[in-house]
Amino acid sequence: MEIRLFTSQSPEYKTALELRYRLLREPLGLNFTEEDIAAEADQKHLGLYDGERIIGNLSMVENGGDTLKLRQFAIDSEYQGKGLSYILMEAGEKYAKEHGYKKVSGHARKSVVPIYIKMGYNIVGEEFEEVTIPHLEIEKVM
User: Fold this and answer.
1) Single pTM value for the model
2) Largest CA distance in the chain
3) 62-109 pLDDT, tens per residue?
4) Could you tell me whether strands 67-75 and 103-109 are parallel, antiparallel, or unpaired per DSSP bridges?
5) Could you give the CA distance from residue 20 to residue 72 in angstroms, rounded to a whole number?
6) Which helix (H) or strand (E) element contains residue 105?
7) pLDDT at 122 over 90
């Protein structure tokens, strides 16, 4: 397994977008719009690879100076349950620390909030709906 950092201008971005679509958008009947993709121009992406195959993605964007927001976190379904989400999250947190961020935050699907709690994240605020499903805001002070 290897973790690679890339931008939306990198060749890896297209395969990461395909993975995210298949795992996060398609089951909800949603597509990526041109506006969605354009909004990712300033984001960094971590890809988790098994050889040359991308099996995980974590997108990151600055959110208010000292906060790094995690987005579009996905692990290929055939690789789930093997602890790989923790490896990818730790890489995101390492990136945050190395770049001087004091806090990591995100909008987590309610169904996966227990994973974030195990990793030391706290729930902030009340449940809300995003992309048609329940979410909670999570954060962790670095």
Assistant:
1) 0.88
2) 40
3) 887 899 999 988 999 999 889 898 999 999 999 999 999 999 999 998
4) parallel
5) 7
6) strand 103-109
7) yes
- Of the CATH numbers 3.40.50.620, 3.40.1110.10, 3.40.630.30, 3.40.470.10, which one belongs to the domain with range 2-141? 3.40.630.30
Look up tokens 């960094």; give the residue: 44
DSSP β-bridge partners for residue 3 = 48
- The answer to whether 82 and 46 have CB atoms below 8 angstroms apart is no
Sheet holding 53-62, edge to edge: 2-7, 44-50, 53-62, 67-75, 103-109, 133-141, 122-130
CA–CA distance from 68 to each of 33, 64, 78, 84, 139 (Å)?
A: 23, 8, 28, 21, 10
Of 50, 45, 52, nearest in space to 20 by CA: 45
pLDDT at position 18 is 93
Handedness of CA 49, 10, 103, 135 (dihedral sign): negative
- Assigned token pair, 65: 């100076």
